[in-house]
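Now for a sample.
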Amino acid sequence: MNQVRDRQLLALTAFLQLEKRVRACTSPEELAFLMVNDTHMMVTYRQAAFWRTDKGAIQALSGLAMPDKDAPFTVWLQGLFKKRLETAEGQALTALSAALVPTQEAESWTLHLPAHACWIPLKRAGGEVVGVLLLARDEAWGEPERQMLEQLSDAYAHAWAALTAGTTRRTKWLQRPRRLAMGVAATALLVMLLPVRQSVLAPAEVVARDPVLIRAPMQGVVETIHVQPNAAVSQGTLLASMDSRELESRLDIARQQRAVAEAELRQAQQQAVFDDKSRAQLAILQGRREQHMAEVAYIEGLLERSRLTAPRDGIAIFDDVGDWEGRPVSLGERIMLVADPKDAELEVQLPVADAINLEPGAAMEFYLNIDPSSPVPASLVRAGYRASTTPDNITAYRLLARFGQADDRLRVGLKGTAKIYGNRTILFIYLLRRPLAAMRIWLNF
């Protein structure tokens, strides 16, 4: 008698502890894991599975953190739950075995589950089944165990209903009448047919319009940059000078050679009065003197060109003085630009993936990074025929645009984002333009 009372007390203690742990669960996943693993505190079993009816899937399996939905055991078990719930017996707590299932399921039962199982539906207060707990073992289930599991199923069902209240409301919303669903679909279709204007965003920069390029006049080394970046210059201002020491040495040698040639020519002219041979050398010596004179003039011209001056009023556009001083350059290499700071235009790099059909005069809005709240209007002047790779390693088309009005904020070198407007189309094409283009490539049509 005392042994029976002790077993009952132990069962009651286990039930209270398990119920306390159930109330402490904070998510449906945590509760499902507890049901398939910790129900062992009340009854012994070898395998357990929990099926949730709102998603129509197995939520948890004993001994696994996450069930594999593609495993053969899981696929077979899902079919068993679905077929069982469609019958009247599936609404009540019952004992199951391979002998009580259809013949076609009996062989699979022996492969996947022990001989005996207990089918435990979890019901709401109104009788709706929210989930099913299946416990399987080798021994048959006794009546006392079934009574304990029936009491425990009420606690499980109450906790599950509390944790899935939001999910249930969403499920009910999804199960509204077909007429409402059709109305929503029709509304969405009409919205997708609304005409909209195509537009794309692309990085842009304010650049000088018709700038004058200051190039290296010869191959050599830049000795000094005489102005600072973005400094205002006037026509004739000295901008940079090349290293002229080699040219000065060449000029000294050329001048000495010219002097020698002139001396030889004078001597030959004096001797030509009495010497026929000297008279014959006059043409050769005169040509040699002119050659040396031309060489002196050429080197003097190089020395003059080694001093780079501003050809017009404007600002000197380059990155940094330290980048150029002492740097070797080749003939024709660009050193800086001289441009009118008020005569600017917009350069846009439109990525190939975002390209749309654009006509000259297409409207734009330029959002400066320093003041994005107030865009500057512009219009397209020219679009590049071929795409090229930008310094950011993006293949893009180069667009040039003119600003519609003067703005004190515009300064050469400022960057921002340009919004380019194209032709009108329907909202469906506007939203799915890139996915449709990718689909055409994949489907080859």
